[in-house]
Amino acid sequence: LTDTFTLHNGNTIPKIGFGTWQIPDGAEAYDATAAALNAGYRHIDTARVYGNEPSVGRAVRDSGIARDELFITTKLPAEVKDYDGARASFDVTMAALDLDYVDLYLIHAPWPWSDMGSDHREGNKQAWRALEEIFGAGGSRAIGVSNFQVDDLQSLLTSATVTPHANQIRYFVGYTQNDVVEFCAEHNILVEGYSPLATGAILDNEDVTAIAAKYDRSVAQLCIRYVLQNGILPLPKTTNASRMTENADVDFEIADDDMATLDALTDTES
Length: 270
Ligand code: A2P
Known about the structure:
Elements: E1 4-6, E2 12-14, E3 18-19, H1 27-38, E4 43-45, H2 53-63, E5 71-76, H3 83-97, E6 104-107, H4 121-136, E7 143-146, H5 150-157, E8 166-170, H6 178-186, E9 190-194, H7 206-214, H8 219-229, E10 233-235, H9 241-248, H10 256-263
Parallel strand pairs: 3-4, 4-5, 5-6, 6-7, 7-8, 8-9, 9-10
Antiparallel strand pairs: 1-2
The structure holds adenosine-2'-5'-diphosphate.
Binding site for substrate: 108
Pfam families: Aldo_ket_red
Site (Lowers pKa of active site Tyr): 75
């Protein structure tokens, strides 16, 4: 939990983040964030659309942990594809979190959720200009994108003055988006993986269970270790305190042949 990756601007980012997607605002998000901090997590990932920024921010403030020991990520709603809207949304986010700055601010998706697959490349360039200014002014210590495919990144890079520091994508055993990962590696963009447990669907997969047993580890631990061993930053989500500790206890090595077996798996969600 204290090991770090380094972003291309030199900032460090704790190697395992605590994901807060689908944790409702209020007591649940507050308690889960507080428990994660208590378990030693120093990297918390939220988003405007998760609706839980107020509780996440309050748990962070109440923790008493020095701000510079924490890494807080949040995201611009995917619907916002214009410069003014992005600037205004960041202000709303900062008021909700009630923090002085965030460590990473991401465009949540290349297309609005209501119109997935639509072409919003021009809008992303406008929103990115706002993020670059937020970064320049210190409102966020790093900026990036989420759910961007290779062509979305290529388009953004044609006008970007700051290369995204990170791209957060869906990533787990059997779903590895290798073309995106390769492109990001070529451009020094850190890849973060959300849903490293396929939102729980992978937990009873027989192939993965068999390999986990060889290492005397849980399926969750094997899956999180797999993500890390591919150089990707996992963001597991749980509201259960003992699972928070379990998910961070991944200091073991998966052998090359087992990595290859895991690489070859498909249909891990069914
Ligand atoms: P819960 O919050 O009840 O612990 P992902 O990180 O891929 O989004 O997966 C999250 C899902 O996996 C949640 O349903 C979460 O349930 C469950 N989960 C997280 N960690 C573990 C674990 N160590 N063992 C079993 N289930 C887990």
